[in-house]
Amino acid sequence: MEPTPVDHIQSYKIFYDEPTPKVQRQMKKYDLVIVEPAFYTKDLVSKLQKSGTKLYAYVSVMESDTWNTVRVNSLQPQDFFTENGQRIHFKEWDSYLMDMTSSHYRSVLMNDIKTQVVAKGFDGVFFDTVGDMEDQFFVKDPKQYKAQTKGFITFLDELEREHPDLSKIQNWGIELFKEETAAYMDAIMWEDFEYKTVSTDQWSKNQINALQQLQKEHNFKVFTVSFSQHAKSMKFSQQQGFLHYSEHKSFNQW
Questions:
Q1: For the chain, which residues make up each domain, given as ranges?
Q2: Rounded distance, CA 56 to CA 166, Å?
Q3: What are the backbone angles phi and psi of residue 46, rounded to the nearest 5°?
Q4: pLDDT grade for 159, boundaries at 50, 70 and 90
Q5: 230 sits in which H/E element
Q6: What are phi and psi of 205, to 5 degrees?
Q7: What is the pLDDT of residues 91-110, one digit of tens each?
Q8: Residues contacting residue 167 through CB under 8 Å, at least 6 positions apart
Q9: What is the pLDDT of residue 1?
Q10: Residue 164 pLDDT
């Protein structure tokens, strides 16, 4: 199997707030950091990369946050997923569920990547909220799940054509990853990889085994994140051959 840009990554961190000079210095300790690209210029990205740190830009796929006015102002009514004529709002994040079957929305996503990721020189893109396809549709509406999945694959195919060297990491959406997207991604992230759950829960055990089997066919890493039981979670993750990160605060605090 061909090597990927994340093959030799041994440490990573997620940080979505503004990178102060102190944070910038501390970033050098990590092989890879996932960040919010709005806070970065091309010059800053280049400066940080010179220390050997790879930078991946956060891009939300299935949700659009209201704070992101640049994207919101580009959206059209058909870009929002609606149920009985109503948009689906996630109060906790103040975001809206999007519709991957909309070609216009896919073009907005592509423009996000061109301007915020490629133009600034990031090493890759971190696709968040992909798991919404499963959470919202996998059980409740299989037909819609298939449609949303098809829309995402169409998008990924176009991205491969336009930016073939851009590395990609997917957050959650394990079923989708196993069925469709593993061939496109250099890694998948498993958030909430807490020892007390993943070491005992049968669903987790099945998914761990499935990912390990899939790694025999595709070269990708499994990144795991814990918010509790850090030592046990890290040890268990490493035993599976995965790469672990312990978050002691939040993604907005260094």
A1: 12-246
A2: 10
A3: -65, -40
A4: very high
A5: helix 230-239
A6: -60, -40
A7: 999 999 999 999 999 999 99
A8: 4, 5, 6, 56, 123, 124, 125, 186
A9: 86
A10: 97
**Mind listing the pLDDT tens digit for each residue in 130-150?**
999 999 999 999 999 999 999
Is-contact 227 247, C-beta < 8 A?
yes
- pLDDT mean over 158-178: 98
- Which CATH superfamily hosts domain 12-246? Aldolase class I (3.20.20.70)
The strand pairing partners of 128, in sequence order, are 60
Beta-sheet strand order (sheet of 167-171): 12-15, 32-35, 54-60, 124-128, 167-171, 187-190, 221-226, 243-246
Name residues whose C-beta falls within 8 Å of residue 44's C-beta, 6 or more positions apart in sequence: 19, 24
DSSP per-residue string spanning 141-206: -HHHHHHHHHHHHHHHHHHHHH-TT-EEEEES-HHHIIIIITTT-SEEEES---HHHHTT-HHHHH
CA distance 171 to 191: 8
Helix (H) or strand (E) holding 64: strand 63-65
* CA atoms 75, 77, 78, 81: torsion sign: positive
Contact criterion met (CB below 8 Å) for 100 and 80: no
Find the mean pLDDT for residues 19-48: 98
Instruction: Please say whether the beta carbons of 222 and 240 come within 8 A.
Output: yes
